[in-house]
Write a structure and sequence with these properties.
single chain
């Protein structure tokens, strides 16, 4: 029997839109009134390769953003260092003025060098400038969520985040930021943040094969804080490739991408998925992950990927 999805009509710039009932449910981070559909959208792929320069087809990039909102996505992840500036400019061109239900989360703490490098930029002047850049290119008076990106290109470190985090707190007091999140952090850095300010979300590298933050994820869940995996479909720009994943996809009649995203949705209710794509077809396919139900047996098999990857990392 065909499964029908009831829809709710919306309107954006004169375009009729529908909102599927099932986007993985919704999550409200503690201390906010945000109701974020758990399947969101990350816009890093709206730029050129390695998040540098313009996309190959700007018109198509704009169509992807509009389609994401048309399909009911109300959580878009971005940053002004994607491009740089280009990803935010595309969002603004595509859907400004923004729907009231839409939450845009951005990141600060990185600058792009002329050689396409990713440079740490967490001084007070750098963070202040980055917030104003995001405001200007998105066309906003205040940013709903700003994630402080720390660590470096090699991953996390355990440096104190007190000083840069305090800068964001001051910018929030000025009304430029509504909520603060953290990105690329360790569990110790999260603990440090708790004596400085409330955190609504943490964005870290996490997927089927990369699970070193399991304990942090569970801690955040108990506190009602959202966990937003980046690279949810693999490390860097390389997709997950495991025979176990292929078998699971075949058994449930889904793609490997859908199974990897479904696993995240079932892993914990505080996980918000922001899989990125520059393709409308891939966008629609990703959203079908909410309809993929993994049995406990399949989940146990998929959990073996993380265990094997952990063993491999220890012996490398």
């Amino acid at each position: 029997m065909r499964k029908f999805i009831h829809v709710r009509l919306l309107r954006l710039r004169g375009v009729r839109m529908f909102q599927p009932v099932n986007l993985g449910g919704a999550f409200t981070p503690a201390g906010t009134d945000l109701k974020l559909n758990r399947l969101g959208y990350g816009n890093i792929q709206l730029t050129g390769e390695m998040a540098w320069g313009p996309p190959r087809d700007r018109d198509e990039a704009i169509r992807v953003v509009r389609e994401a909102v048309r399909l009911g996505i109300n959580h878009i992840d971005t940053s002004d260092f994607y491009g740089p500036h280009i990803a935010n400019e595309i969002i603004r061109e595509a859907i400004h003025p923004y729907p009231k239900s839409l939450t845009i989360a951005t990141k600060v703490g990185i600058l792009r060098g002329p050689d396409k490098s990713w440079m740490k930029a967490v001084s007070a002047p750098e963070l202040t400038s980055a917030v104003h850049d995001n405001l200007r290119h998105l066309g906003l008076d205040a940013l709903e969520i700003v994630n402080l990106r720390v660590g470096d290109g090699r991953g996390t470190n355990d440096d104190s985040i007190a000083e840069p985090l305090s800068t964001l707190v001051k910018l929030r007091e000025q009304g430029l930021i509504r909520h603060i999140g953290l990105s690329n952090i360790t569990h110790r850095q999260f603990a440090e943040s708790q004596s400085i300010t409330d955190i609504v979300c943490v964005q870290n590298h996490y997927n089927l094969a990369h699970r070193k933050d399991d304990a942090l994820l569970d801690d955040l869940g108990r506190r009602g804080i959202a966990f937003v995996p980046f690279f949810p479909l693999g490390g860097g720009f390389t997709p997950l490739r495991w025979p176990i994943l292929d078998q699971a996809a075949k058994s449930v009649g889904a793609t490997t991408r859908q199974v990897a995203l479904a696993w995240l949705l079932q892993r914990s209710p505080n996980i918000l998925v922001i899989a990125g794509t520059s393709s409308i077809d891939h966008l629609r396919d990703n959203l079908q992950a909410a309809n993929v139900k993994l049995t406990p047996e399949i989940v146990a098999q998929l959990n073996g990927i993380g265990a094997k990857e952990s063993d491999r990392a220890r012996t490398a």
